[in-house]
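User: My notes are a mess, but here's the protein and 2-acetamido-2-deoxy-beta-D-glucopyranose's SMILES. Can you give me a structure?
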Amino acid sequence: MGVSPFIGIAITIALISLFFALYPFTFRLPASPSPSSLRLFTVEELAIYNGTDNGLPIFLGILGSVFDVTKGKSHYGKGGGYNHFAGRDASRAFISGNFTGDGLTDSLVGLSSTEVKSIVEWRDFYIRTYIPVGKLVGRYYDSEGNPTKYLKGVEAKAARGAQLIEKQKKEEAKVPGCNSKWSQDEGSEVWCDNGYTARSETTRNSIDRENEQTLCML
Ligand SMILES: *[C@@H]1O[C@H](CO)[C@@H](O)[C@H](O)[C@H]1NC(C)=O
Ligand SMILES: *[C@@H]1O[C@H](CO)[C@@H](O)[C@H](O)[C@H]1NC(C)=O
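Assistant: No problem, the inputs look usable. Here's the predicted complex:
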C-alpha cells in the first residue's frame, strides 16, 4: 500500500524550511564573519572589549591591527597575565614589559630597530594564532583604514632591524672559534668553541659609538 507521493514532498519541503529557519542559529560563526575584518575601531570602542563583560569577545590591538583573542581568555580575560593587552593597543609593552600607566602605549618612539622588529613579529604571531577583526583608527591606520606613514616607518625600521641581525650573525660567524645565535626571548648570545676563551672588547666606530663585542681567543 503506497503512501501518497504528495506527503513525501510535503515532508521534504517542511524539513527544508525548518533547516533554513534554524540555519542562522546552527551555523552562525562565533564573533567575526569576514566583512568585519574591515571594521574600524576608535580607542573608546576597542576599550569595551577589555574582557570585563563575559558576554563580549575580547579584542587586542597591536600596531593598529585588532584581533579577537577570546579563545585565549585565560590569558587575556579578567585576572589573566596578559589582561593589560585587552581592549587597547599597547604595542610598546610587548617589548618593554611595562604594563603600568604610560607604559601601555602604542608609541614606539625611541625603540631600536631590533626591538621594533620584535613587535612586528608579535603581530605576525597574532595573525597566525587569532582572528583579525579590524583596525584601530589613530597612530597606525587613518579614518579610512589605510596604513599611516607611521606604520610604514615602523615596518621599514623592523626591516632594518632584521638586516642588522643578519649582519651581526655574519660578522660573528667570521670570528674563529666563535658561535652566535639570536632569539626573541634571549636576544643575541655568543659562545666559544672548546679551547677558546671568551673576551669582551669595546670598540669605537667612526661616529664615536661604543660597541661591545665578544672575541674568542686561543
Ligand atoms: C572595560 O569594558 C567595560 C565593558 O565591557 C566598560 O564598561 C569599561 O569601561 C571598560 N574599561 C575601561 C578601562 O575602558
Ligand atoms: C613604566 O612606564 C612609566 C611611564 O613611562 C614610567 O613612569 C615607569 O617608571 C615605567 N616602569 C618601569 C618598571 O619601567
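Confidence is low (pLDDT under 50) at residues 26-37.
User: Great, I'll file this with my notes.
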